[in-house]
Amino acid sequence: MKRIILFVLWMLAVWMPAVVADEVGGAAEILKTSPTDLGYTNVPNWLQFPPAEHPDWEFDGVVAGVAVDSRDNVYVSHRGNSAPRLTVWKPDGSFLRIFPGLRPTRPHMVNIDKEDNVWLVDDGGHCIRKMDQEGKVLLTLAEPGVKGFDNYHYNHPTDIGWDLSGNLYVTDGDNSESESENRRVLKYDKNGKFIKKWGSIGQGIGQFDYPHSILVDSKETVFVCDRNNWRIQVFDTDGNQEANWKHIGRVYKMCEDKNGDYFVSDGRVGRITKFKRDGTVIGFFETPDKGPGERGGLNNAHSLAICSNGDLITGTYEGWVERWKAPMDGHEQRFSKNVTALTTKRTKKMDSLMAPSATVQKLAGGFRFTGGPGKWTMLACTGQPDGRHETTFVECQGKFYLIGGRESRKIDRFNPQTKVWTKMKATSPLIHHFQPVLWDNKIYMVGAMTGNYPKEPPMSHIQIYDPLRDEWTEGGEIPEARQRGSAGTVLYKGKIYMVGGITLGHTSGTNNWFDEYDPATDTWKVLPDAPHIRDHFHAVVLDDKLYCIGGRNTSYHEPDNFTAFFGAVTREIDCYDFKTKTWTTLKAKLPVGSAAGGVAYLNGKILYFGGETAQEGPALNRTWAFDLQTETWTELANLNQGRHGSQAIVYDNKVYIAAGSPNRGGGRTNTIEMFSFKNLRKEEK
Question: Are 422 and 412 in contact (CB under 8 A)?
């Protein structure tokens, strides 16, 4: 009953003025039919509300803001009195905690920055607060509780965004006071020092009639949702208008996805629209079977946020929080929730992806195949290493070192000349899911996990093993906001580069972060994000370029299938050019969706082998070679033992791989095998 009364009051206060706004806005210009089916579906009753710990809670007011942090936890700000004003919920929708700190007078939007600081807009308190995860206030914009119109006072602020340099952009002035003349954007530096402002009340260029929210995207373009004018106004960071879009709807809140496309909620029409950077509408989805205020609908969707796997979160005027499940990438099969059915009845698309390659491409360097596509040889050895997976294999001065993994803390050394395994005296901490690099004859481990499945935390410090002295030491601390495991790590010109990874084991936080670490000075630098999020992969460097191949989004789960992440693979190949300092995505894709496979560079080709896929059962045993000149893949000889969760070594024009898991998921082996193009001869001139 309380929700119905609130809804009627809201109708009178908000919808009736909106009818007048239809005449001056873009209501007549918005699309009536979606160009494409976006494929989003509602996850019924996703938010487990009220939580068992607080059965008396009720969202008895507007869910004004929703936001998602680096671990895919969802933050909900709401205006009622029957539940806390700011709460945090796990990715599965279960209750996590009450966010500590100040009680906002009338919360509006909530946003999370890359360091997981929480920015809460208090439009009733006329201020914006930046808080850390403990609720400590780090910065306050404007004087709390004091309404004003100068550069350091607000009159109902609505939202905040920030550019790559940390400059802040605030939208100020809602439509609750018709006599108010402030409708503006204010720009500050990262410390809150005023820089400039633009805007006034009206319908002209650069004017606003309720600047309801703001987004500064990855290209530093400023988007303002000018709600009552039914448009999105696009500016540069100096306030110069670049576009004025009236065809998208009565816009409430906007967000950017990992591919540089955008979503915006339209609570008046009841839809979410996806569009490109130039304003071209890709598609939208609605819930015509749901009435205003009904759970599972988009009517009155006030707030919007995006998860790392592309799922969308909405909050409504009536106090509902909904999750909208994203389809898998357009180039992938959308896998069934029923894992048993998936493994017993593969689709035609998966069959085609798993089919043998029909052709053999010419190799670089004047070689060609004559008797077969190379050969994997299982090595007979003296002694044996510990069986382990999610481990690593790295070479130093002609010796190979098997380090880490879930099942062992021992370090095994292999001599490829004598084929003898030796146990070292030093032992490692519990460390797994990492790709080490060799610098100054020491093995550096950055971007690793520790602990047990599924909530394995990232290692907080760099781990260093000196194989010549057989000594293990702990290096400097990794910046807390950049800690993650299962990242791709490479060495380039004396510096260590880490890309992607996941912040909390196999639960949440898959990302596309890119960092530079200088081991000589123990300093970190944050670099531009990669085009795609991924974890459980290895990176490789050649010709001044870094390549990310394989991997998946381990943050992806379904309500009845926690391990749905096995199907959320990333086939795209991202490339970073160290000379131009830019990212690109190659047109070619990995032939099969695979994560945790081995990657190596041999004879002018990038080899990818093994890994785990959406199929239950044995790990993948297939091998491919990628030609960077033609961007084509060629299938080579199969591994003797399918495996995932280990690293490859290139030594003496051969590829070696040891240990790993022989099955999808857990398991271990202690075998070692070697690949060579032994059936090659020089191509006749």
Answer: yes
